[in-house]
Amino acid sequence: MNFTKHLSVLLAVLASGTAVGQILVPPVIYSNADSYTAQTPSGTNYGSADTISVKATTTTNYSRGFLKFDLSGIPQGAVIVTAKLRLTPKGTENVTASASTQLYLDLANSTWAEGTITHATGIVNNPNFATITVSNLVSSKREFDVVPHVQGIVDGRVTNFGWRIRRNPENVISGNTSYYSKETGTTGNRPQLVITYYMPMSVSAATVVHATSVVATNGSITPTMINGSSTGKTYRWYNSSGAQIGTASALTGVGNGWYGLKTYGTTAGDTLYTAFIVGAECGEATINFNPGPKYINDAVIYDWISGTTDARQVNNGSSAIISADNWTNSSWYDQKSLLKFNLWMDPALIINEATMTLYGNSHYPLNRPNTSELIQITANWYEFGVSFNNAPATSSAITVPMPNVATGNTNATPDVSAFFNAWKANNLLNYGMLFQLTSYTDIYTRQRYHSSDAASPANSPSVLFRVSLPANCDFSAHTEFRKELDGGYATTYQGKLKFFFREEYQIEIGKKIPLTLYDENNLVVAAISMNGTAVSGAPLLPALPYVFDDNRSSLDLSGYGLTTGKFYVLELTTSIGDKQYIKFQYTN
Fold it and tell me: Which residues contact residue 355 at a Cβ distance below 8 angstroms, ignoring those fewer than 6 apart?
């Protein structure tokens, strides 16, 4: 399979907005650099050899293997499902076949070149990624499971310096253990990396129908999902109390509030949580969005380096805090935090308020103010893939100040409406906000809050929304006909006049309310008889049913050329011939 072609087809499908989702299987990736080094002689390079030697010939002389693979064909953000590094033994392997711990595989910690690497180069392991200590012989190939390593490289948390393979232990004679290198003539014997992955699930679009009033329950949410590990997906809808209320792809019959959707595919871990807000026509909805960790992504990033420890590669997506620090622990470091609410908002909503609450957790402006800010993140990131090394781009186009906070646990309530107004205009650009100090001069200070992973859910970040929809509501009452006109008058709404009268006598079925419309010069504009026919050649008014007792109707006058702002009179002729009137101003 042509991987480049496969990827281009995938991107084209995503761009079209088609709902897709599948585990992708690119072709086998063969090593693009490999070699081995020997403790003695320590300065010799073996990059051109057709073998990779991993053995101990004496208790003081061992050799180590090194391999690199080009992973640039795997898109950043991909979720690695499987990653097998496979070596083909050359001759007798002298390694236990099943669950062997006689070989250790490490990520290398610095760059090396096939044609120059020697033992004296001093390539050691990266301590931030666990050594792979177990391998198996599968179909005559030595196989290591390297999912965590490949995920870290694809995420961009660690530079791809390849792998180092060594004996365990290295001070025990192991015999001739070697593997074919990329220089061997048989392609299938060369070191290889076999990977499968999928792109994370996401919402590409959503249609939100808002409730027709603050008490109505006729709202609905219809999202469009793309990517994920499978085309078939399972849906679980929840209300703000956490109760499950639906299992279909769309949610119907709901009132104003926020609703959570859990969508998952067939692969473990392929789960997406997205929240939606349903508003209400003809009223303002107050919604406390306090969803906890499932609908919030947050992570701490910092650039601390001490000895072999490089925190720039470390993911802190499970941190119980979000913090903006300038501190030292044997060396100075800058700490920042990322925060994103996984919330889809209909662009039609008007945000009257969006007040975020962050719950304080050990602020400490030790030597200078901890004045901070929230700024807009402009690129995608993943809660359990982000680190200082691959932190997303930001922009100061949207900046919310976070004033100095005294030592202690004071809460913050910043106005974040600017962020949500930008995101609702294009929900696909909701990458969240970065929390940082306004200055990172090396002087101790800290502003810190609980994250969504706080021990107490009540301390999780939240947002209080007050939202409404564009005014399109008829609050006018039905105007009662009068026997005589006075100084009062009614108004129309969107060209309709609502009126009311009582009929004291029985009315024959099928009769229409007899009406005549006059302009300000007392000229007939339109009329209708009780039989539903025109009167004296005037244009015909709408035929409204005439019934006994309570008559409440809405008369549509939008098609009669009435002038906005001018006054008109509507005349009613009752069943006994009495005349009654309503004076009104036309407002369309």
Answer: 413, 414, 415, 416, 463, 464
Query: Roughly how many angstroms between the first and final C-alpha of the chain, as a whole number?
Result: 64
Answering whether pTM is above 0.85, one says: no
DSSP annotation of 241 reads T
> Which phi-psi region, left, alpha or beta, contains residue 257 (left: φ > 0; alpha: ψ -120 to 50)?
left
At 363-420, the pLDDT tens digits run 999 999 999 999 999 999 999 999 999 999 999 999 999 999 999 999 999 999 999 9
CATH topology of domain 479-585: Immunoglobulin-like (2.60.40)
Dihedral (Cα; 266, 267, 272, 273), 10-degree rounding = 80
- The residue assigned the tokens 């096939």 is 114
Do the beta carbons of residue 274 and residue 83 sit within 8 Å?
no
> Which residue shows structure tokens 């603050």?
214
Start and end residues for every CATH 2.60.40.10 domain found in the chain: 202-293
Beta strands in 199-331 (DSSP E): 202-209, 219-226, 234-238, 244-246, 251-254, 257-264, 271-278, 285-289, 296-302, 305-306, 309-310, 321-328
d(CA 59, CA 209): 74
Q: How far apart are CA 34 and CA 50, in angstroms?
A: 9
Contacts 24+ apart (CB under 8 A), 120-123: 120/42, 120/43, 121/37, 123/37, 123/66, 123/161, 123/164
Nearest to 473 by CA among 219, 207, 277, 284: 284
What's the rounded mean pLDDT across residues 268-289? 95
State the Cα–Cα distance between residues 191 and 31, nearest whole angstrom: 6
Instruction: Give the CA diameter of the chain.
Output: 123
* Torsion sign over Cα 239, 243, 249, 252: negative
DSSP assignments along 540-573, one per residue? BPP--B--SEEEEEEEE-TTS-PPTT-EEEEEEE
Could you give phi then psi for residue 491, rounded to 5 degrees?
Answer: -135, 155
Question: In CATH, what is the architecture of 202-293?
Answer: Sandwich (2.60)
Cβ-based neighbour number of residue 122 at 10 Å: 12
**pLDDT, tens digit, 9 for 90 and up, residues 70-128:** 999 999 999 999 999 999 999 999 999 999 999 999 999 999 999 999 999 999 999 99
Which residue from 47, 40, 41, 65 is spatially nearest to 116, judged by alpha carbons?
Answer: 47
